Amino acid sequence: MSSKIYVGNLPYSVTDASLNSNFAEFGGVSSAKVMMDRDTGRSKGFGFVEMANADVAQAAIKALHGMSVDGRSIVVNLARPREERGDTGGYTASKRADVGYGTGGHGGGRY
């Protein structure tokens, strides 16, 4: 089973290929991806590496966490599962029955 690793505080100069080669020293890398900003095309400063198994992933985490890359101390740890973000698109009306426009006329409430 593969293990996914989060790599944070990356300098903007790091590419998918350089991330892959740094982790390949510890074992098989299934994938290495630096996350890019959709609008600017610039690195977001973090990425993910998927390693062949948990043993090589732990060895890479232990060796690379806190390492200085272009003057930045990188953060390396196991990736957490993605959290559900829910509704992120715009206005959400209150669910409380005692708040809001009510059933009255112009701005009338329930009072």
TrEMBL record:
InterPro entries in UniProt: Nucleotide-bd_a/b_plait_sf (IPR012677), RBD_domain_sf (IPR035979), RRM2_NsCP33-like (IPR048289), RRM_dom (IPR000504), SLIRP/GR-RBP-like (IPR052462)
For this UniProt entry, which segments traverse the membrane? none
What ranges does the record list as Gly residues composition bias? 101-111
Q: Name one GO molecular function term.
A: RNA binding
Which SUPFAM superfamilies does the annotation name?
A: RNA-binding domain, RBD
Ordered alphabetically, the record's keywords are: RNA-binding
Domain RRM, residue spans = 3-81
Annotated spans, Disordered: 80-111
Highest taxon above the source species: Bacteria
| Cited Pfam families | RRM_1
- Kindly give the PANTHER family that the UniProt entry links to this protein: HETEROGENEOUS NUCLEAR RIBONUCLEOPROTEIN 87F-RELATED
What is this protein's name? RNA-binding protein
Q: Give the species this sequence originates from.
A: Acidovorax kalamii
